[in-house]
Request: fold
Amino acid sequence: MALLEIENLTVAFATSVGPFKAVDNVSLTCDRGEILSIVGESGSGKSVAMLALMGLLPWTATVTADTLRFDGKDMLTMSAQQKRTIIGKDIAMIFQEPMSSLNPCFTVGFQIGESLRIHMGMNRAQRRERSIELLNLVGIPAPEKRLSLFPHQLSGGMSQRVMIAMALACDPKLLIADEPTTALDVTIQAQILDLLVDLQKRHGMGLILITHDMGVVAETAERVQVQYAGQKVEEQHVRELFRDPHHPYTQALLSALPERATRRGRLPSIPGVVPGQYDRPSGCLFAPRCRYATERCDRETERQGAEFGFALCNYPLKDGDPTGYPEKAEAGQ
Reply:
């Protein structure tokens, strides 16, 4: 049994013109000791899906799912009190932008110790000892002195390490890292990623890494889930995904990597933008930006099987070419 099982998760936000689906029937699993990466452009619903799992969405959000199970426990039928014993303890999250995620009014020591007090019942001396141990674990020098500092007194890289220490405080079974290297320079990015992977292996946690950086995916992930406009469009093991992507969106993301450029000049890019509430197609959501789209794609889209990486595409790619693609004349091109 997988550590985390999500089936057909949908998150809709109430707006003045009706509900907007930020996450649309997304399913995923993550096993113990596995690194799953969720990748896609901004607006793909990556963070929203995990915030829904954590119960951190505003009241305007409606969350539904066929299955939402963690460590064998059904989170759909849990009471709010039961969820509070799991969230922050067994499931922890490293949020984007550590400089704004940390509370500017409290010291580093207080913020790390808060979860230790709530979930572990530690007294002040125990909290201090454990906080020093955690800061040492994430590579912060002179941890005794850092406990009394406020967030504005820390650098970006050090703030990110404090966020990781807070997430690891109660030895979680599942760690969710939401863009953990955003706004950090390249050297610090590498250090943070190496730290996360090392800690994940050392503690045997499940790790869900949310990112838009395919380079990060290649370096860290074991399995990759690609999302677009709130939908899962492909899922493969990382090597297979980079070698033979099956969805045109995945192919376009990989083609835009600088290291894949075959000649000098402008890098390939994906035309257009992720659809919003007012320009959401009725068929395939990627069709307006896809060079393989036909009239059929404007009406419907078909989910493929494991052979094609569960691609949400009428004409999944194989070795770079679409399968079952009609002739140009038939497609009206």
